[in-house]
Amino acid sequence: MKRRQIVQLAAASLAAPALMVRAQAAFPVKPVKLLVAFPAGGPTDITMRVLAEGAGKILGQSVVVENKPGAGGTLPAQALQTAPADGYTVAQIPLGVFRLPYTTKLNWDPVKDIQYVINVTGYAFGLVVPADSPLKTWADFVAYAKANPGKLSYGSTGTMTTPHLTMELIAQQQGLQLLHVPYKGSADLMQALLGGQLMAGADSTGFAPQVEAGKLRVLNTWGAERLGKFPNVPTLKELGIALVQNSPFGIGAPKGTPPAVVARLHDAFKQAMEQDAYRSALARYDMVPMYMSTAEYEKFAADTFGREKALVEKLGLLKAQ
User: Where are the beta strands (DSSP E) in the chain?
Assistant: First the structure.
């Protein structure tokens, strides 16, 4: 009897890998949850829902978006640390994730403890003011800030986000003291700006519809070249500020997700990136598809992790080690 049990256990252990391979090959057999780092209604949410819909059709199962705003866009990455490594929970990974360990005590590593799947796009950024603001140009903005230290309020999509840190770098270079007000995402920020609670807003081009509606004015954009949607708006470089800022983001899964599942997710999201619906959604905000393969995205994560330390250190925000 004992010998028979040993044989049965040995047979089961030999069969287990084969069963796992078959389960991975069948992936997915239920909906996939995609955690998005910003609130519903903003440009990230809108474009990621279009991408999720396209990927879901390719996978044969729904990709369901769940918004997890707050903490500078880092909550989805944190959620991956406790999610099962089976491919059924994936997350948007904004750039802020790579600076998190330099400002907050963590028990996980953004490079080693996330399985990077694919990079899908990146933000274009700029600074906007209400259309009726007396600050008509960047020169007006600088003059007011210098005449009123600490009184010119601007909002961003959260403390330690790329818009926040970029504005602090600009202020440092220009000798300005600004009043920063953080929000959970673009939708909340735009509501506050249009409601007269702020003088300016630093954000991704989620502000584009409000500009086109005549409610906001763009003072500058932050890319290497002028944006097609705002051809008359100068870049930071044109204004004499030696700074170019964009912010690629993609999709990650829990560490230990099987390679076959990662490949399946990668291929589905890559095909969805190529669809007209996704490209059209991005174009609303002057965004474009920005593809990185799994290997390229992993390298980008490691390289960015090092660069972000230098940025946080320059601003004097590096936490005591």
Answer: 32-36, 63-67, 89-93, 114-123, 125-130, 153-156, 179-182, 200-204, 216-221, 247-254, 289-292
d(CA 85, CA 257): 4
Cα gap 174→177, rounded to integer Å: 9
Residues 234, 220 contacting (CB under 8 angstroms): yes
Q: How far apart, in whole angstroms, are the C-alpha atoms of residue 180 and residue 194?
A: 17
Backbone angles phi, psi at 106, to 5 degrees: -125, 155
User: How far apart are the C-alpha atoms of 310 and 200, rounded to whole Å?
Assistant: 27
The dihedral of CA 146, 150, 151, 153: what is its sign? positive
Place of tokens 């600074």: 127
Instruction: For each of the domains in the chain, give its residue range(s) and CATH number, in order of start.
Output: 2-123+247-314 (3.40.190.150), 125-239 (3.40.190.10)
Which amino acid is present at 264?
A: R
Longest dimension (CA), the chain: 90
CA count, 13 A, side-chain hemisphere, 219: 24
What's the pTM? 0.80
Tens digit of each residue's pLDDT (9 = 90 or more) over 34-93: 999 999 988 899 999 999 999 999 999 999 999 999 888 899 999 999 999 999 999 999
